[in-house]
Amino acid sequence: MKIQPKTSFKYRLLFKYSQTFIPHLFYKVEVNGLEHIDATQPAIFLPCHQNGLLDCLTLLSVVHLPIAFYAKSAFFKGKLMNKILAFLRIMPVYRGKENLQDVVRNEENFQNGINLLLKNYPLCIMPEGGQHSEHRLHNLAKGAFRIAFQAQQQLPQNQSVYLYPVGLDYGEYEKIGYPFILNVGKPIKVLDFMPLYNENPPKGINAIKDALYQALASQILNIRSTEYYQTIYVSSYLGSAKTKKRKLNALLTSAFKHRQLIENQLNTLQTQSEDTLKNLSQSVEQYLQHKPDFVLSSLPLSRLSVASVVAFVVLFLPLFIYGLVLNLPTLLIYRFLLHPKLKGGTMVATVKSVIYLMLSPVIHLIAACVLAFCLHSWWIGLAVFFTGMIVTAFTAKYFSRLRLIKAKIFTPKNASEKEIYTQIEKMETH
Asked: Strand ranges (DSSP E) for 150-239?
């Protein structure tokens, strides 16, 4: 499958539309490290793969470049799907566990990616080689590094392929309306590893793979413990509610760094005093019995900030009702036709996002035509259609505010939560 370097007008139109709409699926979005991106150099973006197609959409909505992606070959079923994915600049990767005979077809797609890099069009490759819906970095595959080195060999000696580690931090995998952070780390220059690669290719690949692993691990909440994964995950959020160094424009990032610190301390505690961690685990289990929304309830917001959210919800209730009515068909189609077929996991958020992104304009167009015909006024029809996408994005944002109010105001605190706070504070003071 060949991806053309230049994008079509239809792609650019969809690209702009998704850039505008996707951020509204989250309560708040914070992006760090865009200053590291050098658009004049060949680039490969290497994000952790946690949330299906949404990983690609969020990257595109932040990095305003015509990125080409690789995806597992299982998605490429039939001519129509192949055309759609090619239009979206997505190429297949064939893996041995799917069909060993098809693996040889990777060379053509890898060469296509190399050609794009040589023309300074960026790629995105999920370096873990698969999707994992957990806050942990897994072993990295070698495909991305093979492409990087082969492209580097064809570049002038003073130019380098840049590898960008991209950390994606979702507050919730299955639901929309939660916080989201995207971190772009400092680039790794493939040129720096070429002497070792020329001398010994396997050693060169392993060296740059290790460098990327360390860089990518620093951009995410990397929970290394398997046994105490849930304990560390929940505790990191509850502990970050006490984040002191916070700025309004970097609220999520400050809490995220605090969560990283708590994870590191609890991971050390597992080797030094596991009994203490077991006690914390029991408190977390008791706390989770109440099914709290600890992600939103732990946001370190001031009372004034919460009050402003309440005022926002009250003030814009009429606009929310209008958006809800206009998008009711889309919500019903998802709820009764698609949701029962999903088995949970990251595909839930992906399907929701795609449905809202692609189906909403069609529903708005039908509603606009029906109203224009019934009311004999095309002006009303046009008004409904053009305001449709604005209120759709607003409705998603409004939902996230309702979730926040429920978590912050209407969720009672319990004794287990206080115990967790106390144990984390003791740990941090030592």
From this structure: 162-170, 180-184, 188-189
Spatial neighbors of 329 by CB under 8 A, at least 6 apart, are 363, 367
Q: How far apart are CA 430 and CA 427, in angstroms?
A: 6
- CA-based torsion, 181, 165, 84, 104: positive or negative: negative
Q: Model's pTM, two decimal places?
A: 0.91
Residues 6+ apart with CB under 8 A from 384: 326, 364, 367, 368, 371
The per-residue b/e assignment along 362-375, b for 16 or more CB within 10 angstroms, e otherwise, is ebbeebbeebbeee
Whether the predicted pLDDT of 189 surpasses 90:
yes
Distance, in Å, from the CA atom of 400 to the CA atom of 381, rounded to the nearest integer, reads 29
Q: How many helices and strands, by DSSP H and E, does the chain display?
A: 17, 8
Question: What pLDDT is attached to residue 346?
Answer: 62
Distance CA 1, CA 277 (A): 51
Lowest pLDDT segment from 17-21, 162-166, 246-250, 289-293: 246-250
State yes or no: pLDDT of 181 exceeds 80.
yes
Alpha-carbon distance of 377 to 300, in angstroms, equals 49
DSSP string, 185-202: PPPEEGGGGHHHHHH-HH
Can you tell me which residue has the tokens 């002006």? Answer: 379
Residues 379-399: what's their mean pLDDT? 88
Over range 405-427, report the average pLDDT. 85
| Residue whose pair of structure tokens reads 């760090």 in the numeric block | 32
| Predicted confidence (pLDDT) at residue 49 exceeds the cutoff of 80 | yes
pLDDT(363) > 60: yes
**Roughly how many angstroms between the first and final C-alpha of the chain, as a whole number?**
57
Contact 261, 242 (CB under 8 A): no
Alpha-carbon span 227 to 313, nearest angstrom: 41
> Look-up: residue for tokens 């398997």?
226
Three-state DSSP state, 234: helix
pLDDT at position 247: 52
Question: Between 117 and 18, whose confidence is greater?
Answer: 117
**Which of 377, 340, 381, 342 has its CA nearest to residue 364?**
381
Q: In whole angstroms, give the CA distance from residue 211 to residue 189.
A: 10
Torsion of CA 348, 352, 355, 358, to 10 degrees: -120
Residue 283 exposed, middle or buried by CB count within 10 Å (0-12, 13-18, 19+): buried
